[in-house]
Amino acid sequence: MATLAARLFGLALLALAAWLSLAASPAEAAKPPEFRGIPFGAPLADVPGLVPVLDAGPVALFRREAEKPAFGEDCPTTVRYGFSRGKFFFVRMHLAGCEELGHIIAAYEAKYGRPAREGAPGWTRLVWRQPTLAVSLSHDAREGTTDIDYVYLPDLSHDERDTWQSLDDVRAHGPIGFRGIRFGRDIESLPEMAEAYREGAAVYYRRAGERLELGETRLGDILYGFYQGKFFAVLMRADAGVDFEALRQAYAAKYGAPRAIAATLEEELVWSWPAAQIALSRDTAAGGLAIRYADAARLAQVVAAETAAGAPPSLSGGLRIFSKGDPPRSFRGAAFGSPETALPTGEFLFTHRGRRYLRRADERLNLGDIPLISVVYAYDAGKLAGVALTIAPSGSDPKADYERVLAAYSAKYGPPVTRPEPDGATMHLWSWPGLSLALVRPAKGPLEVHYVDASLLRRREAALAERALDALDRKTFAPPPRGENRIENPGQE
């Protein structure tokens, strides 16, 4: 018995020693996490064998001369090490052609536990959040690629680490969120949000305690857009006193060169990626500006939902899916926003609701090999605001005519947003910040094509609304004359 007791006591001591060897001392617990023997936060000078890949000022990326294989020969992997101001804080492993991720995910779950699951159709994202480290696995099913990121930013919150992006990543893919809120985040997880208003299929919120500074820019408002309870867009507005040129330079430095789209009354810079979109716009007349970030996939869902509900096409503002390429800035030499006197051989036709309509005496009634019935130019306050084309039917096959015109515009401007009308008509819409183009197939009658200067349309709508409000303010509501019989049909009380 004594021998057995001694053995049990010895086993207990061994178990205790093993447990103590696994438990971290306070000094060890304070150590930062590591990646392949390199502690996060280590100075660049202490890490040998690094080869520069990208230098972007305070952030630099490196590769190692003799990188160990990550996930086997069937899963080619590139590893990049990120240093911020000379200290190690970021790792990206890019996996190409890895068909089976189950064993990789299982290994990470064994090490870090169950992840938070995010994503959208065709996109999977798993996130493991540690006290000072965020690890994420993002898989693009369409491209067959996977990125595994380690982000060590101990001074940031979990949310801020979750939306952190390296400079090369944000340039390549666009923003994945805003101020610690990742696109796709559920509104139920954000108790600091208060509903501001609803517009179409979207609900917009303001955030309690919001900082109204964006770098050196003082903002007037920040609104967070949610669709079906999921975060998909942020809208920022500022007044006329903001330095637009400084913002232009800051955004170009961060995101690269934009598409610059000039409209009659607006200037707009657009950055587009498959998964995200940014627009920086200025009202050149009033001076105010707006900045819009959007998740492209969820924005497309919002547009589709509003289209299915019969909402009017977004010709006059709001978030839109911008068409690829540049918009038409003129029609047959007549620039949108130009005065009537600049229209060659212009002839006045009529006026309707303050808008003047003209035609050209030398108009070619064809668009390539497509015959036209008429071309009409519309002017608001003396500026060219739109052009309407009526397409002549061939008479033999209206469906073929329609498909031919649609194919011609789609080849030039990309796929449109398509909306069926309640009366059986169909509208195909191409939108840019400064201009919209619509192909309308009515239930009866010829096809129509409309070019609309969106900035002038917005100004016209605002003027009409202001006049209506002024008329309402001046209206006097008098009581009925004394003694008048107020029953509409006497005897029918």
Question: What is the strand and helix layout of this fold?
Answer:
Layout: H1 2-22, H2 26-29, E1 34-35, E2 38-39, E3 50-56, E4 59-64, E5 77-84, E6 87-96, H3 102-112, E7 116-120, E8 123-129, E9 133-140, E10 145-152, H4 158-162, H5 167-173, E11 177-178, E12 181-182, E13 193-199, E14 202-207, E15 213-214, E16 217-218, E17 221-227, E18 230-238, H6 244-255, E19 259-262, E20 266-272, E21 276-283, E22 289-295, H7 296-308, E23 330-331, E24 334-335, E25 346-352, E26 355-360, E27 366-367, E28 370-380, E29 383-391, H8 398-413, E30 417-420, E31 426-431, E32 435-441, E33 448-453, H9 454-474
Antiparallel strand pairs: 1-2, 3-4, 4-5, 5-6, 6-10, 7-8, 8-9, 9-10, 11-12, 13-14, 14-17, 15-16, 17-18, 18-22, 19-20, 20-21, 21-22, 23-24, 25-26, 26-28, 27-28, 28-29, 29-33, 30-31, 31-32, 32-33
Keywords: Signal
Signal peptide: 1-29
Region (Disordered): 473-493
